[in-house]
Design a protein that fits this description.
Elements (H helix, E strand, L loop, with lengths): L2 H16 L4 E11 L2 E12 L17 E2 L2 E7 L3 E3 L17 E3 L2 E4 L5 E2 L2 E5 L2 E6 L1 H4 L10 E3 L12 E8 L11 H16 L18 E5 L5 E5 L3 E2 L11 E6 L3 E17 L4 E10 L11 E3 L5 E8 L4 E5 H8 L5
Amino acid sequence: MPANDVRAAKAANEAAIFARANVVGVAIGNKSIRGRETEERCIVVFVEAKRPEAELRRRDVVPKAFGGVRTDIVETGRFHALETAQAVDVGRTKRIRPAPGGVSIGHVQITAGTLGVLARRNGRPVILSNNHVLANQNAGRVGDPILQPGPVDGGRLQDTIARLADFVPIQFKDKEPGPVARFLARLFAPLLHAAGWGLKRLPSGASNLVDAAVAEPIETRLVTPEILGIGRVRGTKEPEIGMPVRKSGRTTGVTQGRITAIDAVVEVDYGGPTAIFREQIVSDLLSNGGDSGSLVVDDARHAIGLLFAGGATTTLINPIAAVANALNVVIE
C-alpha cells in the first residue's frame, strides 16, 4: 500500500475513529500480526485499554480496515504531560554550571522538567524545552525566572539560570459538558443518528503541533550546548518509522528506543484540561515524569524532536521541524 494512500485513509477517517469510546490517538505505523511487526503500513489506533469486541458496543468497534488500509489496535492508556517522578540519577537534579542538556530545569512555579538543548534564536543562545516546563502551561510571562535545578529539586531564586523569552501557547479543548448537557445528548442521540448526524468526540477545533518554549540565559557561560550522556547535536533530521532514537532526561537519564509511528493525532491530559496534538512522533523510548523537554536524537546525534508526553509504554515527541518553525530557533 503506497504511503500516500495510508495517509489519505487516516486523514479521511480520523473523526470516525475518535468518535469511538476508548480511543486516545490515531497514527501511521506498521501492522503487527500475532505480536510480530511487519513492513505493512497501517492505521494505528491507540486505546486506553484493549477489550474483546464482545465487550464493546457495536459503534465502538474499530473496523479491520478503511478502504483497503488495515488497522492495528495498540493499548497505551491515556497520554499525559509527564508529571515529575523520582530521578534515577540524582546528579541530574543538582545545580550544574555550565548546565548541559538532560538536567533538571523549570519555571519558578512548576516542579521540574528537562533542559532540552541550547539552541540559537536570532543569533542569540536560548534554552529549549517544553511550554509546561518553562512557561508553566501558558501561565508564565516573558521575563519570569527559570531555575536550574527546578523547584522540586531544590531550585530557588538564587538558582535562576535564564528568563522566559517566548513560548507557543497550548490550545486546550473546551471543558467537558455538564450532567444536563450529557443527559440531553443521550436523549437526542438516537434521533440525530437516524438523521445521519453523530454526537462525536472529535479531534476538531483548536489543536497543537508543539508544546515548546525558550528561555534566554542570564549569562551565556552558564549553559553548554552539550547534552549529558549524548554529546553535541549535529543538525536535524526528519523522523522515520523504525528509526533508532535516544534521549537524555532529568528522570530516566539516557534511554534508547525506536520510532513506532508518525503523523499521530493524540489527546493529552495536562492534569485536568486536555489538548489535541497533530503530526506527532510516537516512540517506545522509556521516559517518565520530569523527562519532559528532553531532546530526542538519532544514532548520529541529529535532533528528531522534543519529548513532551507519554503513557506507560509510549512516549510522544514534537517533530523538531515544527518546534524550530514555531519558535524561530536553529539547532546546530
